[in-house]
């Protein structure tokens, strides 16, 4: 028995989770997803996605490994260099990092667009309001006046002046079909996913194998650091990032189990 065995699985507020708990980030993530489901912004299936992510994060030691940090820096450089960057928000992302996504959007000049696997007008509206409560200025995704080619009707819906027109898109915790369809549209994709073997990071130009609660604030920090550098320097940061090596390093870390 440790003192932590007394932490309830059902805390009312995240402040009740002790920050020095060995599985603090897991408890925090789970708590935020549960609240998201309660509020109606996260679908119940989001719990399963979270469970899968949690297992990988355990094996990564719940830390940002060096290759993920390099990916986060390259991702920040892509967003800063883009003509029309868009950050895609689903129910898990909205529950886990609403304010952090608003900050990343502000730091990079990107748009935020709500994009749901289980799409209903109510949930889209709830998520947009939730993002605005956390500092987002403009939220796209409500028009849904364009379609991603080669995807079934519901999941293909996007805003014409949002994801459809974007040159660089951040798609965290994305399902493989959509990630592949966006890739086929020729977009530069940045994917955040704790599973390096999942299809989404495998099609991404920049796969970030890290927990989204660490990845997004770190991307914002990199974006602020890179805000005043010239385009050649941003391009150098992008060119130096090796996506294959990053995927291999993450897989190796998970398989070796060296915590
Ligand atoms: P595929 O890409 O092959 O369709 P999948 O069916 O596992 O994979 P989803 O369940 O749609 O994909 O997406 C969930 C993904 O998000 C999982 O790979 C999971 O590891 C990852 N994930 C879950 N929670 C987090 C988190 N907090 N941070 C980063 N990644 C996460």
UniProtKB/TrEMBL annotation:
GO BP term, pick one: coenzyme A biosynthetic process
Superkingdom of this protein's organism: Archaea
Stored Pfam families: PPS_PS (PF02006)
The record's keywords, sorted A to Z, are: ATP-binding, Coenzyme A biosynthesis, Ligase, Nucleotide-binding
Q: What class of enzyme is it?
A: ligase
Q: Which residues cross the membrane?
A: none
Q: Which Gene3D superfamilies match?
A: Phosphopantoate/pantothenate synthetase
What's the catalysed reaction? (R)-4-phosphopantoate + beta-alanine + ATP = (R)-4'-phosphopantothenate + AMP + diphosphate + H(+)
Annotated EC:
6.3.2.36
Q: Name the InterPro entries for this protein.
A: PPS/PS, PPS/PS_sf
Question: Residues that bind ATP, according to the entry?
Answer: 30, 52, 193-195, 199-200, 211-212
GO MF annotations, alphabetized: acid-amino acid ligase activity; ATP binding
Q: What pathway annotation does it carry?
A: Cofactor biosynthesis; coenzyme A biosynthesis
The protein's job, in short, is:
Catalyzes the condensation of (R)-4-phosphopantoate and beta-alanine to 4'-phosphopantothenate in the CoA biosynthesis pathway.
Q: Which HAMAP family match?
A: PPS
Cross-referenced PANTHER family:
4-PHOSPHOPANTOATE--BETA-ALANINE LIGASE
Q: According to its UniProt record, which protein family does this protein belong to?
A: Belongs to the archaeal phosphopantothenate synthetase family.
Question: How does the annotation summarize its subunit structure?
Answer: Homodimer.
Indicate what this protein is called per its UniProt record.
Answer: 4-phosphopantoate--beta-alanine ligase
Organism source for this protein?
Natronorubrum texcoconense
Record lineage: Archaea, Methanobacteriati, Methanobacteriota, Stenosarchaea group, Halobacteria
């Amino acid at each position: 028995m440790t003192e932590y065995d007394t932490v309830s699985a059902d805390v009312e507020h995240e402040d009740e989770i002790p920050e020095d708990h060995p599985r603090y980030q897991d408890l925090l993530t789970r708590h935020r997803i549960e609240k998201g489901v309660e509020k109606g912004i996260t679908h119940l299936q989001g719990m399963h996605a979270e469970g899968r992510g949690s297992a990988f994060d355990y094996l990564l030691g719940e830390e940002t490994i060096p290759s993920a940090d390099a990916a986060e820096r390259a991702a920040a450089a892509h967003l800063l260099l883009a003509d029309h960057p868009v950050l895609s928000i689903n129910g898990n992302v909205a529950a886990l990092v609403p304010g952090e996504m608003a900050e990343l959007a502000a730091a990079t000049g990107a748009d935020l667009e709500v994009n749901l696997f289980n799409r209903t007008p109510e949930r889209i509206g709830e998520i947009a309001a939730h993002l605005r409560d956390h500092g987002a200025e403009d939220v796209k995704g409500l028009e849904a006046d364009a379609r991603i080619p080669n995807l079934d009707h519901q999941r293909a819906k996007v805003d014409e002046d949002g994801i459809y027109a974007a040159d660089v898109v951040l798609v965290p915790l994305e399902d493989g079909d959509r990630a592949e369809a966006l890739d086929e549209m020729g977009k530069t994709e940045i994917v955040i996913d704790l599973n390096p073997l999942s299809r989404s990071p495998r099609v991404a130009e920049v796969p970030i194998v890290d927990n989204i609660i660490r990845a997004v604030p770190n991307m914002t920090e990199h974006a602020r650091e890179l805000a005043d550098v010239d385009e050649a320097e941003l391009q150098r940061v992008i060119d130096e990032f090796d996506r294959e090596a990053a995927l291999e390093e993450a897989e190796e870390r998970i398989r070796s189990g060296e915590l």
